[in-house]
# Entry
Amino acid sequence: MAMPVCKGLLQVLSCTLAMLLALASGSPGVSEKGRRKIVHVLADQTGDVVVQTAPGKVVTHRGGTIILPCRYHYDTSLHDPDEIRIKWTKITDPMTFSDVFVALGGEQKAFGIYKGRCALQEDGPGDASLIVKNVTLQDYGRYECEVTNELEDDTGMVKLDLEGVVFPYHPRLGRYKLNFHEAQKACLEQDGILASYDQLHEAWVEGLDWCNAGWLDDGSVQYPISNPREQCGKKDSAVGVRNYGYRHKDDELYDAFCFTSNLNGRVYFLKTYRKLSYAEAAKACEAQGAVLAKVGQLYAAWKIQLLDRCEAGWLEDGSIRYPIVNPRARCGGREPGVRSLGFPDKKYKLFGVYCYRNGTAQSPPARMQEGIQRWKATHV
# Structure
């Protein structure tokens, strides 16, 4: 690239600026690969594209359908509408984006886990709103709507929130045994994802009190305290979500705070004539076309479907738990919640079992239906 010859102070300054711009934009040694160029159009500027998104957040539940709102304005006299490119991305952390959906003219494409679930709403000119069907736990988070023509682009941000429940979790090995990556895996195995700070804070507002610190999705370690006590950071300390800060994701070990949402099936306690071992419990569920319920599924059934059962039962991870919506003296405490009896030897025949049936399992098992019909026949 030929550089200009400069004479005089003013010319030297002008040429220096010109050379810097030339190097930044045209030099083969400067790569823009992997970087994202965003030109924001402010209110006091004249630009071809201005993007508007709704303030706050949009809320749905797992399995639902949601619209991520986004509208744009542009000068139709200067550009063909088919030149407008609409791109949706998910912000996975402040510097990382994953592609969700792109549209240019009549061409539209969804990416990764969003394939087959996304489409533009297209409710009149300037509507870039995205419809997301069959929402998953992994869809939770912040999304960016970017609208671009040949010269300008602008972006807006939308937060997708889910209705659900936060639950603390540690595996059979005991407390403080999980690094960050193991905590992520543990939540997924129990039908959840690592909770965000916002989700944990909301759970604390609703009464969650837990004395063990756990990983959150941003790599921080925190825990919610509503009832200060000596064993949880001293009795005279303040209530709130206590923060250990960002910890080393590979080397440091804690519990996990998981989040789950609406069930796509049903959890129920399987009434049997005798208590079961873990293996027998798994077979009993399988005989009904079901599987052992996971911890997250039991929490969702307790929180969302108001499952209330004062009988302890096996779960998929080998723990024994039971859900209480209406506390009573003989059912383990004065507060509602999912009670845990830990991880006993799987050979013990001391417990019942909680089963989970997917899809059409919203209705009770056939045996329960038959019992209801017999009751109606003798009482109605």
Q: What stands out?
A: The chain is about 20% helix and 30% strand.
